[in-house]
Write a structure and sequence with these properties.
About 30% of the residues lie in helices and about 20% in strands. By secondary structure, it is of the alpha+beta class.
């Protein structure tokens, strides 16, 4: 569309064209009402005809018109006439920046002055909530006074591209996953179609500044595809290779702006602006001349009549340089470094904050503000070894590519180290390398008693049992032991060795090849099956492979699968594991020794770095999850046989397996000793002083008794009192919604924040919405297992089969319950405990569920009459309470739940709530679940349910505390279809 001079659009008369681009044509026009010149942008006709785009365009333009800043081109008006949609802007007499950059680039001082003005505009707009998303030289106009105006704020997120395009054509779609921006200047996240924030403008700014300094684009390629690839993967050519004399301060700013990772860029345009101003103050005198070393040398070499004057001048110049350097560093520390350290701390990026604080302290030692920040990001520690003289290194925990940082040689006294999770390495010639893992949660907590903090024992190489690491335990603190057995926890233990890795197929084959299955001297424990003795011959007949030969269950003719030498051996019973340990001159670890080596209380950082949910067993040491003493895979991969008997007939298997809930790393499981499961393996211990191992450490553990048969639910009158504790005022939600990136094509994820039902708090929930189904959607309210208490952040990848529920066409509403994920507090665990803190948390958890439903009922795309509840393990127990108090829940699925052995206060005791559950309930459990035994826990829970006959169902599977995926999906979806109807 081309408008001829004299054409009128409302009160505006077109005078002549100013330019054209992929987003439309721009004209100079006359405002006939106010007698002023304006610029009018006319949008393409194919976009103007869309009513929804028109309404959105108009509303957005009204908002952008509020951006009143000297460096932003103001929007005066917006309109539509005869199908022509247009925007009226301030007219600036000048040229766009792309036409003003000469060959070789702008002068350094002019480039810096222009850059500061652009950054001023960005900082103002970002603070007002606007992201430009199409910053480029063609969108920056410079008038005759060198005043810059940034054009087109907000238009990038409103208008789609026309069909006419070249390498520079702006591609400005707003659909999720679409590319937004102009190819040579867009950020990597733009090029990949990800969601954007203000840091994308910081990247584009870096490209503009690069071009101002060099007259060349940071990213160039012969085609659009190659250009996008360069933006995503390639680094631009260094500035000093294109133009000599670019000050290092300016080079640093450009480099930081152009980091591929948004986290590595300036956290905000305000921080960028501060750095630019500091650069300006450092580089330029009041006259604007650059104070470079070369200029100082030229001044010194200039002929002088008086040598003393020259010497004085040299001294003054030198002092001036020192003063300028000190002033620059002080200004940088106070205006840039300290605010950025605070921001990095708030973002949890402690190592980066620590490194920046180190630089700042060198610049201005003893700064009072910096002194207040140090305790937030670091701690003082002394580290020693026996013998001394070991080189100490540290590396970020869980990052195998992180460099080892040299700390010092032992003894290292009173050094400052960053808070966080680290692996420490101790090396000394002739001695074995020792690894230690520490966390800011416990620091150097795990140390031998009565020794200095951080003392690490180093052993001579020939005295270390092959493949084992030393554990130097103190008494196990009661609060750090496995839940349910705290009263048995205190146990003084001496140093011992434990396998660094799980026993592998290759190692176990030595036992098979040396006829270990036919040598009774290795089988020192009497065989018991179903409480009855079993003969040697009968037991050996059970320990065969797939072809009937002696060996693990899944081997063939005494051989494991080719290529699986370093996989953990599986399919072996407790008896076989104990026999191998005897053959190797070792023992199965007691529950005390295994727990001390594993450190299950450190689950929050060990579990994410371990093999849970990967799709199968992995070779030992494949994951970086390392325990305090340098041993791998104690969390996940395969769970491990333990020496101790659990009750009368089972043995403990600890650590959790790849296909089980993550919280089983920190909670006990037990199985019959003849079980030969494909997810159970083992590792061995070797006691340095066997006589020093307390006998009680190897004794059977009694299974906690229950008296459920004697429990009686509260009367209706008393229950009404309990029920009143869960009510709350329905105050306004004041909800905000943030759409998150999702790598899955089947659903979107939203993070919602709203007013909680207690304590003037802000609650959080995640709403996962299937993409391929029409509203109104059935909604599943989810309550997780207690791993949510120990993990630091919400898992954006759905767990516990939630993906199957989403693919069935149902929405999932996942509240962040008080004390879990980012709402973490002092909660010790999921209970049940007879404490007021636990009681208060249960009531808050139930209110969190109800408040989430309140929010869901504000969403029109959700069916307000078809809410269901799905609880997993901990969530199953809580489901008994939530379903009893929440009539909006129509149907329930309880997976892996049961009655707990311990009883809390009656107002939060499931026994009093389960009879009031009237909804249809599906219970899914494992037959060998040690946490919730079938008869005493699962069946007791099921019998108490108040659901009508025929509307409650209990299914058992041949598993422990996990479920077969396909069976769960089939039964759960059938249950929801039955009581809520099929998804439309």
């Amino acid at each position: 569309m081309t408008l001829v001079p004299g054409t009128k659009l409302g009160p505006y008369e077109i005078q002549h064209p100013l330019g054209a681009g992929g987003m439309g044509e721009v004209y100079r026009a006359r405002d006939l009402r106010l007698a002023r010149s304006v610029a009018i942008k006319v949008l393409p006709a194919d976009r103007s005809s869309n009513p929804s785009l028109h309404a959105r365009f108009e509303q957005e333009a009204k908002s952008i018109s509020a951006l009143q800043h000297p460096n932003i081109c103001v929007v005066h008006d917006v309109g539509c006439q005869d199908g022509v949609e247009f925007m009226v802007m301030e007219y600036v007499a000048g040229q766009t920046l792309d036409k003003l950059i000469p060959p070789g680039g702008l002068t350094i001082d002019l480039a810096v002055r222009h850059a500061i003005q652009i950054a001023e505009a960005l900082a103002y707009a970002h603070n007002a909530g606007f992201v430009h998303r199409d910053l480029k030289p063609a969108n920056i106009i410079v008038d005759e006074r060198d005043l810059l105006k940034v054009l087109d704020f907000g238009l990038a997120k409103l208008v789609a591209p026309t069909s006419a395009a070249n390498d520079e054509t702006a591609c400005l779609l707003t659909m999720p996953g679409a590319i937004v921006g102009t190819f040579p200047y867009m950020s990597p996240e733009q090029a990949e179609g990800k969601s954007l924030d203000a840091r994308t403008d910081v990247f584009s700014f870096g490209s503009v500044l690069y071009e101002m300094l060099t007259a060349k684009r940071a990213f160039q390629a012969p085609s659009q595809a190659a250009l996008l690839s360069a933006v995503i993967r390639d680094d631009p050519k260094p500035l000093n290779e294109i133009r000599q004399g670019v000050p290092p301060e300016l080079h640093r700013i450009v480099t930081r702006c152009l980091q591929k990772d948004p986290q590595a860029r300036y956290p905000s345009s305000a921080a960028l602006l501060q750095d630019l101003k500091g650069c300006r103050d450092l580089l330029f005198s009041e006259s604007g001349a650059i104070l470079t070393r070369e200029r100082i040398v030229r001044e010194i070499k200039r002929p002088r009549n008086l040598i003393p004057i020259a010497l004085v001048l040299v001294s003054l110049v030198t002092a001036g340089v020192v003063w300028v350097k000190h002033s620059r560093e002080a200004r940088w520390t106070r205006e840039t470094a300290i605010p950025e350290i605070s921001q990095l701390y708030d973002q949890g990026r402690i190592e980066e904050a620590y490194a920046l604080a180190g630089r700042a302290e060198k610049a201005i030692p003893g700064d009072a503000t910096l002194a207040k920040l140090w305790p937030l990001i670091s701690y003082q520690v002394s580290i020693d070894s026996s013998p001394t003289g070991a080189a100490v290194y540290r590396r970020t925990y869980g990052d195998v590519n992180a460099p080892w940082i040299f700390v010092g040689r032992t003894p290292v006294k009173d050094i400052r180290e960053p808070l966080g999770e680290f692996i420490w390495k101790f090396e000394k010639p002739g001695f074995g390398t020792a690894l230690r893992m520490t966390t800011s949660l416990f620091g150097w907590y795990l140390r031998p008693p009565r020794r200095a903090a951080g003392v690490v024992t180093l052993d001579e190489l020939d005295k270390i049992p092959s493949g084992m690491v030393r554990v130097s335990p103190a008494s196990i603190p009661k609060e750090l032991f496995i839940p349910g057995y705290e009263e048995l926890a205190p146990m003084p233990l001496e140093d011992y060795w434990i396998d660094q890795y799980e026993v592998t197929n290759r190692q176990f084959k030595d036992f098979v090849d040396q006829r270990g299955y036919s040598k009774p001297e290795y089988w020192k424990v009497d065989f018991q099956q179903d409480g009855k003795p079993l003969s040697w011959e009968s037991a050996m007949a059970l320990f065969h492979d797939a072809t009937g030969q002696p060996g693990p269950k899944d081997w063939v003719q005494g051989q494991y699968l080719k290529g699986q030498d370093n996989f953990p051996v599986t399919g072996i019973s407790w008896y076989e594991a104990a026999a191998y340990a005897e053959f190797a001159g070792k023992s199965l670890p007691t529950i005390y020794h295994w727990n001390r080596a594993a450190g299950p209380f450190s689950a929050a950082f060990i579990v994410p770095a371990s093999n849970f949910g990967s799709g199968g067993v992995l070779p030992v040491g494949s994951k970086p999850g390392i325990s305090f003493w340098g041993n791998y895979d104690m969390a996940g991969n395969v769970k491990e046989w333990i020496w101790n008997q659990a009750g009368l007939s089972k043995h403990f298997v600890l650590g959790g397996a790849w296909d089980e809930p993550t919280y089983l790393f920190a909670e006990p499981d037990a199985q019959f000793p003849f079980v030969r499961a494909s997810n159970i393996g083992f590792r061995c211990a070797k006691y340095i002083h066997p006589e020093g191992v307390p006998k009680v450490a190897a004794d059977p553990f009694p299974v906690p008794a229950n008296n459920f048969a004697k429990l009686k639910p509260a009367s209706d009158e008393l229950f009404r009192v309990y029920r009143s504790l869960y009510s709350f005022d329905k105050i306004p939600l004041k909800a905000t919604v943030q759409r998150l990136d999702s790598s899955d094509e089947d659903w979107t994820t939203e993070k919602i924040t709203y007013t909680a039902g207690y304590g003037n708090e802000q609650a959080t929930a995640y709403l996962l919405l299937p993409k391929k189904f029409k509203p109104p959607l059935q909604t599943v309210l989810y309550f997780p297992g207690d791993g949510a208490i120990f993990l630091p952040t919400f898992p954006l990848s759905p767990t516990a089969y939630l993906d199957a529920i989403l693919r069935s066409g149902r929405a999932v509403l996942y509240p962040v319950y008080k004390g879990t994920y980012e709402r973490k507090d002092d909660t010790k665990g999921s209970g049940p405990y007879k404490t007021s803190s636990y009681r208060d948390h249960v009531i808050m958890w139930a209110k969190d569920a109800s408040r989430a439903i309140d929010y869901a009922q504000s969403r029109p795309e959700l069916d307000h009459d078809k809410f269901s509840y799905y609880g997993y393990s901990w969530g199953s127990g809580m489901g008994g309470i939530i379903a009893a108090i929440e009539p909006r829940v129509r149907v329930c699925v309880f997976a892996l739940g049961g009655l707990d052995f311990q009883r809390p206060f009656p107002e939060v005791d499931n026994v009093n709530f389960l009879p009031r559950v009237k909804q249809p309930v599906l219970m899914l459990n494992g037959s060998y679940d040690f946490m919730y035994p079938v008869e005493s826990s699962q069946e007791a829970f099921f019998r108490l349910l108040g659901s009508r006959e025929g509307q409650k169902k209990h299914l058992l599977y041949g598993t422990s505390h996990n479920l077969p995926r396909n069976e769960f999906i089939k039964e759960t979806l059938n249950w929801l279809d039955r009581y809520l109807g099929p998804v439309q």
